[in-house]
Design brief:
Beta-Lactamase, alpha+beta, globular, 39% helix, 4-stranded antiparallel β-sheet
Protein backbone atom coordinates (compact mmCIF):
# COMPACT_ATOMS: atom_id res chain seq x y z
CA UNK A 1 0.00 0.00 0.00
CA UNK A 2 1.31 3.43 -0.93
CA UNK A 3 1.13 6.18 1.63
CA UNK A 4 1.09 9.96 1.45
CA UNK A 5 4.41 11.64 2.18
CA UNK A 6 4.87 14.61 4.47
CA UNK A 7 5.82 16.76 1.49
CA UNK A 8 2.60 15.76 -0.32
CA UNK A 9 0.52 16.46 2.79
CA UNK A 10 2.12 19.90 3.12
CA UNK A 11 1.38 20.69 -0.55
CA UNK A 12 -2.26 19.65 -0.08
CA UNK A 13 -2.62 21.76 3.10
CA UNK A 14 -1.15 24.77 1.33
CA UNK A 15 -3.49 24.48 -1.66
CA UNK A 16 -6.51 24.02 0.61
CA UNK A 17 -5.50 26.94 2.82
CA UNK A 18 -5.19 29.17 -0.28
CA UNK A 19 -8.68 28.11 -1.38
CA UNK A 20 -10.07 28.81 2.10
CA UNK A 21 -8.63 32.32 1.95
CA UNK A 22 -10.40 32.82 -1.39
CA UNK A 23 -13.72 31.92 0.27
CA UNK A 24 -12.92 34.35 3.08
CA UNK A 25 -13.39 31.60 5.65
CA UNK A 26 -11.15 30.29 8.41
CA UNK A 27 -10.99 26.51 8.07
CA UNK A 28 -9.70 23.47 9.89
CA UNK A 29 -7.93 21.23 7.36
CA UNK A 30 -6.85 17.66 8.10
CA UNK A 31 -4.90 15.18 5.98
CA UNK A 32 -4.83 11.50 6.92
CA UNK A 33 -2.55 8.80 5.59
CA UNK A 34 -3.53 5.54 3.90
CA UNK A 35 -4.30 4.01 7.31
CA UNK A 36 -6.60 6.87 8.32
CA UNK A 37 -4.06 8.31 10.78
CA UNK A 38 -3.63 12.08 11.04
CA UNK A 39 -0.64 13.12 8.90
CA UNK A 40 -1.00 16.91 8.77
CA UNK A 41 -3.39 19.47 10.19
CA UNK A 42 -3.87 23.22 10.27
CA UNK A 43 -6.34 25.39 12.11
CA UNK A 44 -6.47 28.77 10.45
CA UNK A 45 -6.65 31.77 12.76
CA UNK A 46 -10.21 32.17 13.95
CA UNK A 47 -11.44 28.77 12.73
CA UNK A 48 -14.16 27.21 14.86
CA UNK A 49 -12.91 24.94 17.63
CA UNK A 50 -15.80 22.54 17.06
CA UNK A 51 -14.67 22.01 13.48
CA UNK A 52 -11.31 20.52 14.46
CA UNK A 53 -12.81 17.10 15.19
CA UNK A 54 -15.20 17.36 12.23
CA UNK A 55 -12.37 17.97 9.75
CA UNK A 56 -10.42 14.97 11.05
CA UNK A 57 -13.49 12.74 10.96
CA UNK A 58 -14.33 13.88 7.43
CA UNK A 59 -10.83 12.89 6.30
CA UNK A 60 -11.04 9.51 8.05
CA UNK A 61 -14.53 8.84 6.68
CA UNK A 62 -13.34 9.58 3.13
CA UNK A 63 -10.37 7.23 3.60
CA UNK A 64 -12.26 4.43 5.31
CA UNK A 65 -14.69 4.18 2.38
CA UNK A 66 -12.57 5.72 -0.41
CA UNK A 67 -15.33 8.04 -1.45
CA UNK A 68 -16.28 11.66 -0.89
CA UNK A 69 -18.17 12.21 2.33
CA UNK A 70 -21.00 13.95 0.48
CA UNK A 71 -21.54 10.79 -1.57
CA UNK A 72 -21.71 8.73 1.62
CA UNK A 73 -24.23 11.23 2.95
CA UNK A 74 -26.48 10.67 -0.05
CA UNK A 75 -26.38 6.90 0.57
CA UNK A 76 -26.99 7.24 4.32
CA UNK A 77 -30.34 9.03 4.19
CA UNK A 78 -33.33 7.27 5.79
CA UNK A 79 -34.19 4.30 3.63
CA UNK A 80 -30.78 4.38 1.95
CA UNK A 81 -28.37 1.45 1.82
CA UNK A 82 -25.96 3.08 4.31
CA UNK A 83 -28.56 4.50 6.72
CA UNK A 84 -26.98 5.11 10.17
CA UNK A 85 -23.42 4.43 8.96
CA UNK A 86 -22.31 7.61 10.77
CA UNK A 87 -22.56 5.80 14.11
CA UNK A 88 -19.96 3.22 13.05
CA UNK A 89 -16.18 3.44 13.38
CA UNK A 90 -16.31 5.68 16.43
CA UNK A 91 -18.33 8.28 14.54
CA UNK A 92 -18.23 9.30 10.91
CA UNK A 93 -19.13 12.53 9.14
CA UNK A 94 -21.40 12.05 6.16
CA UNK A 95 -21.74 15.54 4.73
CA UNK A 96 -19.45 17.23 2.17
CA UNK A 97 -15.88 18.24 2.93
CA UNK A 98 -13.95 14.94 2.88
CA UNK A 99 -12.25 13.58 -0.26
CA UNK A 100 -9.88 10.64 -0.82
CA UNK A 101 -6.40 11.52 -2.09
CA UNK A 102 -4.93 9.49 -4.94
CA UNK A 103 -1.41 9.02 -6.22
CA UNK A 104 -0.56 9.69 -9.86
CA UNK A 105 -1.09 5.93 -10.38
CA UNK A 106 -4.66 6.24 -9.05
CA UNK A 107 -4.04 4.48 -5.72
CA UNK A 108 -5.67 5.98 -2.62
CA UNK A 109 -2.86 7.27 -0.38
CA UNK A 110 -4.89 9.22 2.17
CA UNK A 111 -7.70 11.75 2.41
CA UNK A 112 -8.42 15.40 3.18
CA UNK A 113 -11.15 16.72 5.46
CA UNK A 114 -12.20 20.36 5.76
CA UNK A 115 -14.61 22.04 8.16
CA UNK A 116 -15.36 25.62 9.06
CA UNK A 117 -17.97 27.00 6.70
CA UNK A 118 -20.92 25.82 4.63
CA UNK A 119 -20.64 22.27 3.36
CA UNK A 120 -20.34 23.72 -0.15
CA UNK A 121 -17.31 25.80 0.87
CA UNK A 122 -15.87 22.88 2.83
CA UNK A 123 -16.11 20.69 -0.28
CA UNK A 124 -14.62 23.40 -2.52
CA UNK A 125 -11.62 23.80 -0.21
CA UNK A 126 -11.17 20.01 0.11
CA UNK A 127 -11.33 19.64 -3.67
CA UNK A 128 -8.68 22.32 -4.09
CA UNK A 129 -6.41 20.41 -1.73
CA UNK A 130 -7.16 17.09 -3.41
CA UNK A 131 -6.34 18.50 -6.84
CA UNK A 132 -2.96 19.91 -5.75
CA UNK A 133 -0.09 18.78 -7.93
CA UNK A 134 1.69 16.05 -5.99
Amino acid sequence: MSDITQAQADTILSAARDAARETGTAMNIAVVDAGGNLKAFTRMDGAWLGSIDISIKKARTARYFDMATGSIGELSQPGGPLFNIEVSNGGLITFPGGIPLKSSAGEVIGAIGVSGSTVENDHTVAAAGASAQL
